[in-house]
Amino acid sequence: MYHGLIEDKFADECGVFGIFVNNHAEEIEIARTTFYGLYALQHRGQESAGIAVSNGEEIVLHKAMGLVSEVFSNEHIDSLKGHIAIGHVRYSAAGAAAVVNAQPLVFHYLNGMIGLAQNGSLVNSEALRQRLGTYGSVFQTKSDAEIVANLLARYSQDKLEDALAKCMIDLEGAFALVIMTENCLIGVRDQLGIRPLVLGELKGNYVLASETAAFDTIGATLIRDVEPGEIIVVDKNGLRSTQTANFNKSAHCVFEYIYFARPDSKIDGINVYKARRELGKQLAKEYKIDADLVISVPDSGTAAALGYAEEAGLPFEEGLMKNRYIGRTFIQPTQQMRELGVRLKLNTIPELVQGKRIVMVDDSIVRGTTSKKLVQMLREAGAAEIHMLIASPPTKYSCFYGINTSKKEELIANKMEVEDIAEFIGADSLHYISMEGMVTALERNEDFFCAACFSGHYPVAVDI
After folding, report:
1. Is 14 a known active-site residue?
2. How sure is the predictor about 245, in pLDDT bands with cuts at 50, 70 and 90?
3. What DSSP string describes 105-160?
4. Domain ranges across the chain
5. Which candidate in 14, 167, 399, 450 is catalytic?
6. Considering the chain, what percentage of its residues have pLDDT values greater than 70?
7. What is the CATH topology of the domain spanning 274-443?
């Protein structure tokens, strides 16, 4: 399975957005606003994009494979007229890259039309498919959102909020849903809040998104995070909320703060950039390296590297320069391109690193192949020593909650001790932040997070 662009990084499978316009409709082009919201969430999925809009009578959908800017022309946006919209960007597991799996999904059912977009993954999806199949349900996609739609259809004799509450009993795993009918917008977050979902306001109208960065882009303001297990319904009468879970229990994905979310987002009360900088400071407190220079693996390691340099009293330099114009060209590269791999995306600045003892900070190591190539490049550029520091604990276990990870056996930290990984990548030393240090830096209790990829303790039971 090949992940990400030309790097061995984890990939978040989706981003979602929703808006209900009841005020200043003439000032808000709903499809264009949704387009910009999805643009801000592009980092959460680069495979496909879609927008569904309701005019009060029907839901119209446009979706396709590609980036947001590739999927939507001005003509597409101008054709999507209405007062409710939901949008989705997607990154899928291998083998599921097809437009039929792109979201939102739009269905006709007993009570009219419904559109759904989901971030996350159900751990009991196969069991639910089999159960629904015995009742006569037919599935056309591999998407968990289609399972939710079929469940809602099964409970269609109830009011929509009641049907959703029943669905919450059936659904096991991690999910943030934006759902629309012809006349309302709904946001749903899983019972532990594993996947993020935030509520905002734009000129008196309600907005939902995976991250606050989408609000900043469209000029909306954050109201609050959607609570774990909460169902929010927005219609012409305003907003109402139903709580289906225990407020005292959560398992927010810690990798949102380490890598996935945009640094300018705020999730569950934590500023992502500040969190990453504090992780770097904590690394410096745990590991004092006698070095000349701190560099980062851009861009995901930069905030942590700045924090490390500040705490350690060392200069920070851009020893690795990122080519930001690669785009999606190398998602499935030829073997020759794969050999070039890292050099197509990152290049050293020899004048900065030559003869220097380097601390290189990154957010994580997955398979180790990229780290190995980066160390080799720095050696070739004349670095005297290379010490690699990681702003997360060793990633030893797969994620089953909506993150596209390697199999456990492919994760280098699952197979090797730290010293062996250091030897494999060619570094003079390798150090990971401790679990305790990570929690300290994030300023929350350990039970606030899901850290199963580090610990193997899954907050929702999985069949491994």
Report:
1. yes
2. confident
3. EEEEETTEEEEEEEEEEETTHHHHHHHHHHTT----SS-HHHHHHHHHHHTTTS-H
4. 11-250, 274-443
5. 14
6. 92
7. Rossmann fold (3.40.50)
